[in-house]
Amino acid sequence: MIRVKKEVEAGFGATIANRVADQLRDDIVSHRIKPGSRITAKEIADKYGVSSMPVREAFSMLCGENLLEMNPYRGATVIAVTPELVAQLNDLQYALESLLIELSMKKGYSEELLHQLEDVNAQMAALTEKDWREKRTPLNMKFHMLAYSPCADHMAYQLFARNIKQLAFIRKYHEVDYQRMSQSVWEHSQLIHAIRNNDVISAVTIVKLHTLNSKQYALTENFEEEQKEN
Question: What value does the mean pLDDT take over residues 147-165?
Answer without folding.
Answer: 93
